[in-house]
Amino acid sequence: MASAAEQLVANLNFGALAKAEELKKRIWFTLGALLVYRLGTYVPLPGIDPAAWDKIFNQQAGGILGMFNMFAGGGIHRMAIFALTIMPYISASIIIQLMTTVSPTLEQLNKEGEQGRKTMNQYTRYLTVVLSAFQAYGIAVGLEGAGGGSVVANPGIFFVISTVITLTGGTMFLMWVGEQITQRGIGNGTSLIIMAGIIAQLPTAVASTLELGRQGALSTGLIFAVLVMGVIVITFIVFMERAQRRLLIQYPKRQVGNRMFEGQSSHLPLKLNTSGVIPPIFASSLLLLPTTVADFAGPGQATGWLTTITTLLGQGRPLFLLLYVGLIIFFTFFYTAVIFNPTETADNLKKHGGFIPGIRPGERTAEYIDYVLSRITVVGAAYLALVCLLPQLLISYAAVPFYFGGTSLLIVVSVTMDTVAQIQGYLLAHQYEGLIKRSKLRGRRR
Asked: Residue 54: inside a domain, yes or no?
């Protein structure tokens, strides 16, 4: 039988949304912040020739620039002030998270509760400034040398400094906007900014596909098959992202004062895909790096070994697909091991008196959790590899001109699910508040 909370969630409707004033304010604030972000992706860097850069970008769209342009919502194609988008902040967060596993100081901060998290967030911001400045400097130098110097009107130290300040400031502003969305809006601000950039590219991709169908370059049957496949893949992603392996946790009887509390049971949920979308992003970045370096070197300027690697790692080539799958599997296991510590989980269970039936608390519990996690991670890695291989096969063998599925679809579906869950939580709290107020009124009347 469903619980009262489950029944309330099942009965959520737009009428409840219309009455939740606090939730409506949060949604409007989120939409306004995302609108500011989208407007910033159309403000170009000073000193750039848009036509010259557009020509160079179109030549390198198949490399790492094309992938990051998808995350930036077209900001790199337009070389806007938000070209770096929020990615340096995400990279800094991942680096701090990785450092927590090897640095005793950071590990201790992570265990100090709210104050420790505030300190680590401050370290993340400082590292974001460093990474943003470093990447902005690389972009400035690359722009000065791109196209034989035709992109930048007045190259020199002033252009480099202004570009570094502008791009770094844009990233820090987006970081602040993301934090404001998380606190005053709905959903995770950083994830929503990335999702907004990806969704912004979708109408153009769909329009270009339909135009190719009108011209006869793509058959109507193929376009229809892609649409049906899209629905199937989205359904598959939702199912896999919600999939969990629940470990039964028992708590023994305990006595508090003169009262005896019965033993309770709960579950330890282990997600099938604990690592999220990080493995595909890392794998794509590493594989597309040689192509990007060769493109910036210019035709005929790349060395022999770089040209060979670029040829072998062309999108759709067997070696590219094999390494892509291998890197996704590696990063899935690696990042899962970083963000989930079975030993720490077992210690917390033991501290609170919980245990897994048939498993001795402590070290044996940690080994069992690691055993289960390793096996479900195999399924999670296979799921990520399958979803990310699909666009590569469509582009290479079906000539579908837009990036269908893969990392972009994973991000959009995951962020949408998290945001909807938060909206349901606010609506549920609003309904509970209404029930409490009504019960109080009835008590006063009596």
From this structure: yes
